[in-house]
Amino acid sequence: MRFILSAVALSTLAFAVPTLACGGDKATTAQNDKKPAIKKVTVAELADLMQQNAKSKGATVQTVDVNSDKTRASMGVIPGSVMLTSSAKYDTKVLGQDKAKTQVFYCSNTKCSASKTAAKRALKDGYTDVRVLPVGIKGWKDAGQSTATPRS
Question: Structure pTM?
């Protein structure tokens, strides 16, 4: 009896494994169809990315400021940032044509959601490496990183 049950179990497995390997698992197929996700970056990680960026011949990372003019005037901006006029209604052309370039969005602090809104728009428009700095410009400054005066 035990032999018959083992044979049945093995034959069932023999049919199930190829089905899973050939994409029969709906969960695996759904994972493969997922769009890129917004990643979080820390101040230290962003500072490292920017340092690598400065050493490379072509810019591979771009910071994107989603703050208001008032916040920019009082807190400054991360040097070299692209400044958006709106978190939801900006023209994604300001991000550049290289949709594989790392785009790091930031706003004022952890309570602000404008950077996530702007990052979602970039993903929707086809940018593939989209990140947010959750601590924003406040966290950047609190960590002792340099800021620049925004361009008018």
Answer: 0.76
